[in-house]
Amino acid sequence: MFTPGGLVAGAVAAFFIGISKTGIPGAGILSIPLLALVVGGRLIPGVMLPLLIVADFFAIGWYRRHTRWDLLRPLAIWLAVGFAFGIAFFIVVGSAPGALERTIGAIVLVIIALQLWKMWRESEPQPLGPVTTAGYGTAGGFTTFVANAAGPVINTYLAGLRLHKSEFLGTAAWLYFVVNVSKIPFYLGLQVWSEGGEFFAAEGLRYDLVMIPAVVAGVLVGRAIYNRIAQQVFLVVILVLSALGAINLLF
Q1: Cβ contacts of 53 within 8 Å, gap of 6 or more
Q2: Which of 161, 193, 198, 206 has its CA 20 to 30 A from that of 5?
Q3: Which residue, 121, 176, 189, is CA-closest to 143?
Q4: pLDDT-based confidence at 122, cuts 50/70/90?
Q5: Quick check: 40 pLDDT over 60?
Q6: First to last CA, the chain
Q7: Cα separations (Å) of 238 from 12, 13, 24, 89?
Q8: Is the separation of the CB atoms in 42 and 104 below 8 Å?
Q9: 45 in Cβ contact with 146 (< 8 Å)
Q10: What whole-number distance in Å separates Cα of residue 198 and Cα of residue 209?
Q11: Closest to 113 measured CA to CA, from 23, 28, 29
């Protein structure tokens, strides 16, 4: 982890985690394959989770007054269902060599494909019914539990609610924070009661501490550039790089 390459990859990953919370929603997808260059197995989501929570604190601090809790309640039960599928996945996969990396790679590629499809359509957001909410919630709960990759799924759901930009950011900030903190006891339980290794290791937590300044830099830059760059172009570059990283995880 603490090699020059590991520190650079982690810093870039942490920086994009920060940007994704305050500037370019979806940019955090690049962080997953980058961290997979540094750690493997359950340490991939385990190392990433504390960095996400740090970035969530900043997003909450800036946008908390605009949270629409009434719109989050219908999603909560389906996120829990997604969590249940994620728990089952980790129990079934266990310690199979490379299984988690390949699964994360596949999830990232699917998320990228959905994001590109959404960008290509460029259609107006549509009202969401109960069935659609169930689908987004379950998919979001599973992808965030397994790979911390629910951003594009949940962001698409929130876009469908036709929120004002400030409401979007405030609602997303609290949603991600609650979801990310909720994963901690489940990861600890799986770490003790199932095969497959640790999510949280002492070295991984020390690594996270070193990466916090990069997260802070990301959230500050993200807030500064939110309305000042062509987000579509920036996001396409991120998606292409993420796809290359995901393919590396698969093969």
Answers
A1: 177, 180, 181
A2: 198
A3: 176
A4: low
A5: yes
A6: 22
A7: 12, 11, 10, 28
A8: no
A9: yes
A10: 18
A11: 29
Give me the residue spans of the domains in the chain: 4-250
Query: How far is the C-alpha of 189 from the C-alpha of 232, rounded, in Å?
Result: 40
Tokens describing residue 6: 């590991």
CA dihedral 219, 208, 177, 118 (to 10 degrees): 60
CB of 240 closer than 8 Å to CB of 108? no
Calculate the average pLDDT of the chain: 86
The model carries a pTM of: 0.88
Q: How far apart are CA 25 and CA 88, in angstroms?
A: 29
Instruction: Name which of 16, 54, 9, 53 is nearest 35 in CA terms.
Output: 9
Asked whether 100 and 42 are in contact (CB, 8 A), the reply is: yes
User: Which residue from 31, 81, 26, 23 is spatially nearest to 222, judged by alpha carbons?
Assistant: 23
